[in-house]
Amino acid sequence: MTFLHPAILGVGLACVAIPIIIHFLRRRRRPIPWAAMRFLQEAMRKRRRRLRLEQLLLLLSRCALVTLLALAVARPTLGAGAGGDRPTTLVLAIDNSIASAQRDASGRTGLQRSIDAARAALQGVDPARGDAVGLVTLGAPGEALVWPPSPDPDAVRRALDRLEPTDSRVTLGALRRVLSERPEEEDGRRTEVRLFSAWRGVDARTLFEGAPLGGVDAIELSPPGDAGGANAGLADLALSTPTVVGAASLAPSTRVSGVVVRSGDLPAQEIAVELIAQPGGVIAGRGVARFEQGQERASWSVSVDDAALTPGRAGRVAVVARLPDDANPRDNTARVVLSKRRELRVGVVERAPVAGDLTPGAWVLAALTPDERAGIESFRIDPASLGSVPAGSVDALFVLEPSRVPDAGWTRVRELLSLGGLVVLTPGVDGDLAWGGRLSELSGGTLSLNANAGVREEPTRLSPDEPGALLGALRGEFADLATSVGVARRVSIDSREPDGVVLRTQDGGVMLAQSGGADGRGMLAVFTVAFDMDWTDLPARPLFVPVVQELVRRGSGRGVDASAVAGLAAATDDAGVDRWEPDATLAGEDGVTGVPGSRAGVFVALGADGRVLRTVSVNPDADAARAEPARSDELGAGAAALFPGSEIRSDGDTGDAVMTARQRTAWGDGLALTLLALAAALAVIEAVLARAASHPAHDAPRRVGA
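^ thats the sequence. predicted structure below, dont judge the formating
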């Protein structure tokens, strides 16, 4: 037990000496003899023992009365722990993660309850004793709002007033940083850490992982929240294509897919998903996620009405997915950004053909623009002049003679990939494999050409097995179209990515492989055959046009407009980026500030000239918004492992905190009132004893005279 006002307690206890001093001063008075005094002295001698006992009881009651008043006014509390009068550094860690926005049956959020508990804890801070308070948040990546610790509790209260939930998960990152970087405490100083959270969406076994932290005297964990309630959120939003071409009636409709994550009560149900296009706020599609009883995750996919996609800033359109409101609204909205273009520009890298020759480039150009509705502008580029073509002037390149591309040309290829463009490589008709090293360089080592195997002349056919995701829109008709495609010659390519192979031959070989660029942007697609009838009859088959069209539409713009999960790392340090800013017209809401981080929204990267370079749509961490709280025994065990040697305030069986700060303060207030009541009762007893001790002296002469 400690006291909110220890100085008052000290003064009050010192006042106990006053009745003692008065008692002994009265005994030192000299009696003055007078005529009738001998009768009174005779009576007093007969009652001396009783009078001494009464005077002793009267002295004790007066001392106890002063002590009780001092204790009550000093306000006892359990809040300061075992530190007593030692100055204390109190570190308050508040959970403002996405799960803290979960409302309970009373309509209050976990964050509101944590703030109330933190405010109650501040009542135990005594700046006069040398106490100081720090404040950190637990919503990833975490912030040190008040640090170094401040001796001003009001500064912490103001910071608490500004707290809002993030859209990210719980992390101890900020707490670890401030504790590991704090200066050595002075001798006799105490450090306490109090974590306020309902512990929803937390894996206690991983939360407390890491190097142990020393120098902390006591850790207090608030108890987990109630196990009731439910929540549903959006996760894994994805587009079938990052670029929509306005006139592309030949292309399948754009599809948006995702996952609905449930927690808490899990009945069989259907949850509606609504898609809204921004800017404009037009409904672009509706879908449903269907759940069986006990099922936690369900996928959904919705075809978007391309007519509803009105381009905004730099031709971008945000598709906003929304769920009906529930106990935690922060994970009910997610966004994905695409680019809407009037047409795509595609270069075919090949020497000019001799009149009448049907070259691989001729086949590709015909497949790119089968009619005027394709929305693709295509043109031939000589390999020797590729280095003079600005990378930003094309959306895709088909490099059909890679061995003839000079170094400057490969530099442009790398730049196109870094801008999110598509690069399609095929071996040349002559079978020259000198470009193998370039393939490994462009793919970051995930694709490699087996030049030692040379050109294999082993006739086979294209496998009718389902193609990879890059050609996912063709799955319905692919088997019927693939069986007619023959392969006579091919090179050998190895892919180190699990989903890197898009098409295979019937003997298990690779026909088409894909990879992102070395920096994770753009799309690199590599065929093992030249588009020549001596290699394969694919160019003459009905499958060729949809394959080329899908490659261009799905591969262009990859990695330019990215998605990220709130609280997890988002690339914000790109070369050429001057600043980041939120885009409210794409996000469909105001109030988001700063750079991509802990809060959901759409952010644009701007160059020094104000040009939009790319966008990032940051979405809530729905997996961290689970309604179920962590187990209290796991929380206690995790805290004990992270803070070895520290006092963990918990119930030994359950790991629940013994008392929250609010409970301790309420306990102290109740005790203070009890002490005042005892003091009042003792004052009455003292008055009775004082009267009883004085009346016998007045009554004695009458009894003697009788």
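Residues 79-83, 651-664, 697-706 have pLDDT under 50 and may be disordered.
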